[in-house]
Amino acid sequence: MKSAFKYLAIMALLASCAGDDKKVEEQVARILENNPEIIIKALEKKPYEFMESLQKIAKSAQSQMAQRRAEEEKKELEESFDNPKVPSITDNDNIRGDKNAPITLVEFSDFECPFCSRGYDSVVKLMEKYEGKIKFVYKHLPLEFHPNAMTAAMYMEALKIQSMDKGWKFHDTLFKNQSKVKNGENYFKSVAKDIGADMKKLQADLKSEKIKNKIQADMQEAQKLGFSGTPGFLLNGVPVSGALPPEHFVQIIDELQKRGKVNL
Q1: Bridge partners of 139?
Q2: CA distance 177 to 172
Q3: Which of 20, 23, 118, 248 allows an S-S link to 243, with CB 3.0 to 4.6 Å?
Q4: Distance between CA 183 and CA 188 in Å, rounded?
Q5: Can you tell me the distance from the alpha carbon of 96 to that of 128, in angstroms, rounded to the nearest whole number?
Q6: 97 sits in which H/E element
Q7: Distance (Å, whole) CA 115 – CA 230
């Protein structure tokens, strides 16, 4: 009986023309907080209806959240066309393609990230489509929960000291055979041997502070540019997060052309 009276009190509060809605909400919240059995009994009485309503609410919320996120991303994309982000690109970076190409694609990546493997496929297709008009810059963002990612990044940088070609061959081999990256340094050594590396020099260069500093600089730059996951791209300063298909990048390039931001 006591619960029934409290239920009636709640209904009276909700149905009244109160002058202060906040006070009404506080009173109702206080009653429900002190008497959770009111809600429990209501749910037990009509569990099916409750679950059905809950599913509808969840579906509606997901749809609204997706729509809101899409609108936010559209707004961010629009702003990035007018205010592109500016990455640091030096001769010490891993650069593929014409350095003076009108399209610059920068990637922050992790050799052990499965999404980065898909990102690699997109990059390969874009390099083919815009051959001679695009340069690709590979930067490191090894994530902590990928145990072999940092070592792989160090191997690429150490091999690059011997030659840029060896660094890129290591890069390509790992992404084409990513399932083997889990084998760690034994696999990295075998790849280095296969591409003709000077193994003695490689082991010495792996201890170099220069390599560690380069990778740390890439990671700090990624954070500064707003990338916390991989892969993260900048296409002429326009950010792209995730392993999206090449068509997504093509759309951005087309839009850059329409706006006169790039001339192909």
Answers
A1: 108
A2: 9
A3: 118
A4: 8
A5: 12
A6: strand 94-97
A7: 7
Closest CA to 138 of 174, 103, 110, 178: 110
* C-beta separation of 236 from 104 below 8 A: yes
pLDDT at 181: 98
* 8 A C-beta contact, residue 263 and residue 102: yes
**Tens digit of pLDDT for each residue in 21-55?**
566 567 666 766 777 777 777 777 877 777 787 78
Per-residue confidence band for 58, with pLDDT thresholds at 50, 70 and 90: confident
pTM of the model as a whole:
0.75
How many Å apart are CA 140 and CA 153, to the nearest integer? Answer: 7
**The amino acid at 95:** I
Q: Which two tokens stand for residue 226?
A: 């707003």
- How far apart (Å, rounded) are the C-alpha atoms in residues 93 and 254? 27
d(CA 155, CA 87): 23
One-letter amino acid for residue 16 of the chain? S
CATH 3.40.30.10 residue ranges of the chain are: 94-258
Task: Read off the amino acid at residue 187.
Answer: Y
CB-CB contact of 89 with 137 (8 Å): yes
Q: How far apart are CA 203 and CA 189, in angstroms?
A: 10
How big is the CA angle at 76 (ends 70 and 82), to the nearest 5 degrees?
145
Topology adopted by domain 94-258 = Glutaredoxin (3.40.30)
Mean pLDDT of 110-119: 97
